[in-house]
Amino acid sequence: MIPLGLEHYLILSAVLFAIGLYGALTKRNAIVILMCIELMLNAVNITLVAFSRYIVPGLLTGQVFAIFVIVVAAAEVAVGVAIVLAIYRGLEHIDVTKIDIMKW
Amino acid sequence: MGLAVTFGILAIVVLAAALGVVLLRNVFRAALALILCFLAVAGLYVTLSADFLAAVQVIIYIGAISVLIILAIMMTREIQRGSPPNKLQIPAFIVAVVFLGVAVFAVTRTPWQISSAPPLVPTTAALALKLLGKDGFILPVEIAAALLLAAVLGAIVLAREK
After folding, report:
1. Domains contained in chain A, number
2. Using one digit for the tens of pLDDT, what is the confidence trace for A4-57?
3. ipTM of this model?
4. Per-residue confidence at B20, pLDDT binned at 50, 70, 90?
5. Residue A43 maps to which CATH number?
6. How many CB pairs under 8 A join A and B?
7. Cα dihedral angle (B51, A46, B58, B39), rounded to 10 degrees?
8. Can you give the residue ranges of every domain in chain B?
9. Nearest CA of chain B to the CA of A100: how many Å?
10. Which residues contact B74 (CB under 8 A, 6 or more apart)?
11. Residues 6+ apart with CB under 8 A from B135
12. Yes or no: is domain B2-116 CATH 1.10.274.10?
């Protein structure tokens, strides 16, 4: 058995990112798309922390990056949910395939 | 050995929960699967000896972001209609598989320079020095504060009743 290493974490996060990408591209419900974006951000965070642990264990740079990614994710989800609620108030649905009010 | 077993269990939980988010038709159940996925990712951070990040993951992702998402689900009442897929299923599947193939190819072919130094634990004090200390990331920390303020103000403006 191969000892646990960097590649395991990187492949796991690649699979997680691919699942999130598939969900973000195929879903109709805007909230589920936001959830899939969170999955992708989590995959990136796993990659950053794994690099930090295995390449530069004493520097923690990857963990600092992961903290900033979490901050941006929190801001993104706050604005995203506000946009979804504003759209729902106007259109009574949040089906992204039918939201075309900016199309001319 | 124990670390490898823990990693295996957590990896299975993460992937199963992520598949649940994408495949479950009930939006609320998908949100619960998302919370399980966040929790397992926090466990993965523990196996990577990132204790502070594991706590931050639980507090911010499970405590704040999941609550916001569940609040949005409750306020939009789309649970009965579920989350049906759109017409892009096959192209999206191809895109995801191609991305996965390229990523796995790049990861397995790159000669990583693995350091054998032991990881730094506990990380909290070291991270604080890194973020706020001399020659640290103090400017990005200030910018993050401004970003959060702008995001909260923007969310209030967007969601306010006219």
Report:
1. 1
2. 888 999 999 999 999 999 999 998 889 999 999 999 999 999 999 999 999 988
3. 0.91
4. very high
5. 1.10.287.3510
6. 235
7. -110
8. 2-116, 123-162
9. 15
10. none
11. none
12. no
